[in-house]
Amino acid sequence: MRYDLVIFDNDGVLVDSEPISNAILAGYLTELGHPTTYEESLRDYMGGAMHRVHDTVLERTGQQLPDDFDRTFHTRVFAAFERDLTAVTGVTDTLGKLVAAGVPYCVASSGSHERIRVGHRRTGLDLWFAPDAVFSAQDVGRGKPAPDLFLHAARRMGVAPERCVVIEDSPLGVQAAIAAGMDVYAYTGMSAAAQLPGATGYFGDMAQLPDLLL
Fold first, then answer.
1. 6, 53, 79, 144: which could join 176 in a potential S-S bond, CB 3.0 to 4.6 Å?
2. Tens of pLDDT along 110-142?
3. Closest C-alpha among 65, 71, 83 to residue 17
């Protein structure tokens, strides 16, 4: 087999959550006096952990976001997930082919464990991911683009980094995978290939992914 472990990003790769969450994030930041468009939210925060939002706003404005920012944001996002969230088209077929081929896989997301659970339960992906194969930026000190999360996932799954491949859709995630010494295939569902430099390869349809991995 080409790889001993496939590490999936979650938002935008497994669940089609990026349009939902970035629209809510842009609106909430604007509401708080930090005007942000949907496009700017994608550019600045897609693929990053929540601390990136706090750090960026503080750096740009000298102001801290409210203490309840994360809680309010996630309340809004989870309500929208329950209404509108779907799995990325073709992802369950890809997971089925990995299972049939005996290739281990896991998820390593910048989102919180709660965010992952809510999204997976809503879309049925909880049936595909055992609890011990779900990793969050909450588990490490630094989120993407640092390599810490991917290295943590590989270590917990018992696989050397060079035997892992990451499936990502954000510039921050691609950077993190490269920094971890892993191959990375970039899904161009939300970002053009030119926005994801350095990836091992690119694909725009989940149906193409098994041929890249197996």
1. 144
2. 999 999 999 999 999 999 999 999 999 999 988
3. 83
**Residue-wise pLDDT tens digits, 38-62:** 999 999 999 888 999 999 999 999 9
Q: Tell me how far apart the alpha carbons of residues 60 and 56 are, in angstroms, rounded to a whole number.
A: 6
The string of DSSP letters for 144-196 reads TTSSHHHHHHHHHHT--GGGEEEEE-SHHHHHHHHHTT-EEEEETTSS-GGGS
The pair of three-digit structure tokens given for residue 88, joined into one six-digit string: 């990325």
pLDDT over 80 at 195, yes or no: yes
CA dist 56 and 69 (Å) reads 14
Angle at which helix 18-31 crosses helix 50-61, to 10 degrees, equals 30
H, E, C per residue of 86-140: CECCCHHHHHHHHHHHCCCEEEEECCCHHHHHHHHHHHCHHHCCCHHHEEEHHHC
How many alpha carbons fall within 13 Å on the CB side of residue 81? 25
* 14 in Cβ contact with 88 (< 8 Å): yes
Dist. CA 27–CA 86, nearest whole Å: 21
The answer to whether the bond into 210 is cis (omega within 30° of 0) is: no
Residues 199, 205: Cα–Cα separation, whole Å: 16
